[in-house]
Specification:
Elements lengths: L20 H21 L5 H28 L3 H22 L2 H12 L8 H16 L6 H31 L1 E4 L10 H13 L12 E4 L2 H10 L3 H12 L10 H17 L5 H6 L7 H32 L10 H16 L3 H4 L5 H16 L2 E4 L12 E6 L5 E10 L10 E6 L2 E5 L2 E5 L2 E8 L12 H18 L21 H7 L5 H7 L11 H10 L4 H20 L9 H12 L15 H4 L9 H19 L4 H16 L7 H9 L6 H6 L7
Parallel strand pairs: 5-9
Antiparallel strand pairs: 1-2, 3-4, 4-5, 6-9, 7-8
């Protein structure tokens, strides 16, 4: 059987090749379009008559196409790209046709108006209401020329988004800085030199070694981040910084034109649907009621962090002066990470690199799984070999309940592979939980998640030794995975993260990050990779003290991105008197303490909003962080040293936030857990921007 036509279960990754994509998807689309025509002609306005057959139809095609999309992220190749680009327009046309089906829309409306609707499960009601709303936002009410134009725009946006993402990947891959002299590597830690020598060998310098070089620095996060923190060569830091902020802004990988076209098409699409701008369209399906509410949140956080960020910069300047640094009175963007790390070392008497040996991946996973057991009563065990994988480094795990019955599974693709894998970290669903009925009765299909990170890979026979930041990232993605895996909703349209408003979806992920600062948890994560020595207590105390170090700057950075995103999708008019740079520079005056460089085109690699799901939604990180900080405050209130209280509160979090998925509005879910609506003071307190209780 053709692997992509399997249609269910775990994807047979080793059997899938790019050459199979076009014939398999062509066949599936023909089947799906015929099945949709049949369904439209015989609408039965009941759950079993409309929702269930439509779920079967969409899941069959979604199963296959999501595999292709997953491989585009983790095993990218020219052949796969070509196949993806050939089929993507036809997939977009199919989903557009489905979203604009008047017959389906009337069927959903009839279900909502039926006497049976009152007896529906809360999840079923939400699914029907969301389907009606989403079809309206997909142009179901359009006819004639507006409909044709809307559909053309949908195709163009899908193509531009894919092009944007590929340009970022290619531009990242295209740049490297090869160092050959000892003075060029001054200050660089051993872990980076080992990694840079490995990169040099991969690029053809077969004799490269960590001690003698050559050493290749890339724009991939595990290389770029430590280089900017530790390189004593200010000229090289400048070069690498300018390379990262001007990525995909010129030449073959230029995204500048793509950004303008994306923004123009989004505005036009919104206007066709009757919205003033794309931000209004985006917010129509989110928790935040309108643009003003988003701006009010951002302003409240900005006003709490701006002076703190200015003070952060003054502290760096004063410290650099004390070290007689020639750049002290004129710190630039490429100096901030370097001097921040030096000040952190001086202030807290440790640096990020010396912690690495205490965080080998296996030990971190052991501590994380133990925490999940204590909080949520689940047991996670290795299940390697039970699922086909796309790369030899990919792991597979089973999640079981308190009775040790399997309830979910997940893949973990932990390491950076810049030649074929996009940057960043993400969770995606492989299989969603659902109750299936066949001749043998009902059974629950267990959810399976993809957890993807880009952490430092094993080098020269040593395990993956993680920075503390990489530990936090793993916890973050695991939080997303928990919401997908611990759902108890049996309807695919509301299980896991399905039908969860986008600005609430970061709640579990950001919530999990807090546990990296919980003493018993951190001490269980940290054991020296060679000696087995536990993480010394003094490191825990230093990490805790350093938690709010430069937090004003960190908060302001996220606010700048969020505000820029909202401004570009609300007030900015493509082709008008303002340019994108004008918008950014205006916002930079109130949300950056060092103005951006003239050549700073970071928007050209801002995949979250131009190639991901965060368009007019980047503020979601802060919106959800208010929820997640207040959720963690419930554990603080219960007593972080009280294992029983933590377990009780954790089960309540599991049974509400992680269990209910999209079956209820996020505010209802949060209130069910917390007993009240969220309070933003916990977020400011955790960031050290207001006094601790």
């Amino acid at each position: 059987m053709k692997p992509l036509l399997q249609g269910q279960g775990l994807p047979p990754f080793p059997e899938i090749t790019p050459e199979q994509v076009v014939p398999a998807m062509t066949e599936l689309l023909a089947e799906a379009n015929a099945a949709l025509t049949q369904l439209e002609a015989n609408i039965i306005a009941t759950w079993a008559g409309l929702v269930e057959p439509l779920d079967r139809l969409t899941e069959r095609i979604g199963w296959s196409w999501s595999i292709v999309g997953h491989l585009m992220g983790v095993k990218n190749s020219p052949e796969l790209r070509a196949a993806y680009e050939e089929m993507q327009p036809q997939l977009v046309q199919f989903w557009t046709r489905l979203g604009q089906s008047a017959a389906l829309y009337q069927g959903y409306k009839a279900i909502a108006a039926s006497p049976e609707f009152a007896n529906f499960d809360a999840a079923q009601k939400r699914i029907i209401e969301a389907a009606i709303r989403d079809m309206e936002l997909s142009g179901v009410g359009l006819t004639g020329e507006p409909k044709q134009r809307f559909n053309e725009i949908q195709l163009a946006l899908a193509e531009l988004s894919n092009k944007f993402s590929n340009n970022v990947l290619d531009a990242t891959k295209a740049y490297s800085l090869t160092l050959t002299k000892p003075e060029e590597i001054a200050g660089l830690p051993e872990s980076l030199l080992a990694q840079a020598a490995q990169s040099a060998r991969a690029a053809g310098n077969e004799a490269a070694t960590p001690t003698d070089g050559p050493w290749t620095i890339t724009l991939d996060a595990p290389s770029y981040g430590p280089f900017m923190q530790h390189s004593q060569r200010r000229d090289l830091r400048e070069q690498v910084y300018k390379a990262v902020v001007s990525r995909a802004a010129a030449g073959d990988y230029d995204n500048l034109g793509n950004i303008d076209r994306i923004l123009e098409f989004r505005r036009e699409k919104s206007n066709i649907l009757g919205f003033d701008n794309f931000a209004e369209l985006s917010l129509a399906s989110k928790m935040a009621p309108n643009v003003a509410a988003v701006e009010n949140l951002l302003e409240s956080l900005r006003s709490a962090s701006f002076e703190a960020a200015k003070q952060d910069l003054e502290d760096l300047r004063a410290f650099a002066i004390s070290k007689d640094a020639p750049e002290a009175n004129d710190l630039k963007h490429w100096d901030v990470a370097y001097w921040s790390e030096r000040l952190r070392e001086a202030k807290f008497d440790f640096n990020a690199e010396e912690l690495r040996p205490y965080f080998p991946l296996e030990q971190v996973l052991s501590g994380l799984f133990n925490l999940a057991h204590n909080l949520f009563g689940i047991n996670i065990t290795a299940a390697d070999g039970q699922a086909p994988i796309w790369n030899p480094d990919v792991r597979y795990f089973q999640v079981a309940n308190e009775q040790n019955q399997p309830i979910a599974y997940f893949y973990l693709d932990a390491y950076s592979r810049p030649s074929e894998k996009r940057g960043g970290a993400w969770m995606a669903d492989c299989i969603s939980r659902s109750k299936l009925t066949d001749q043998d009765g009902s059974k629950v299909r267990l959810p399976v998640a993809y957890l993807t990170c880009n952490q430092t890979p094993p080098v020269d026979g040593k395990p993956s030794l993680m920075t503390f930041g990489e530990v936090e990232t793993l916890f973050h993605e695991f939080g997303h995975g928990l919401q997908h895996m611990l759902t108890t909703v049996d309807f695919v349209g509301a299980s896991g993260i399905s039908n969860v408003e986008w600005d609430a979806v970061e709640l579990p992920s950001q919530f999990m990050e807090n546990w990296c600062y919980h003493r018993p948890t951190l001490l269980s994560l940290g054991k020296h990779s060679e000696t087995g020595e536990p993480l010394p207590e003094h490191y825990y105390q230093k990490l805790l003290a350093a938690r709010t170090f430069m937090s004003g700057s960190g908060m302001l950075r996220q606010i700048h991105f969020s505000w820029l995103d909202i401004a570009l999708h609300s007030s900015y008019k493509p082709g008008g008197t303002d340019t994108i740079a004008d918008v950014r520079n205006r916002l930079a005056k109130i949300s950056m303490v060092i103005p951006p460089l003239p050549e700073d085109n970071f928007l050209c690699s801002f995949g979250h909003i131009f190639a991901g799901g965060y368009a007019a939604g980047y503020y979601s990180y802060k919106w959800a962080e208010v929820l997640s900080a207040d959720a963690f405050a419930a554990f603080e209130d219960a007593g972080l040293d009280d294992a029983d209280a933590i377990g009780t509160t954790g089960r309540r979090f599991r049974d509400t936030v992680l269990s209910l998925g999209g079956s209820k509005h996020p505010m209802e879910v949060f209130t069910a857990f917390r007993g009240r609506e969220p309070d933003p003071s916990a977020l400011l307190r955790h960031n050290g921007l207001v006094a601790t209780k």
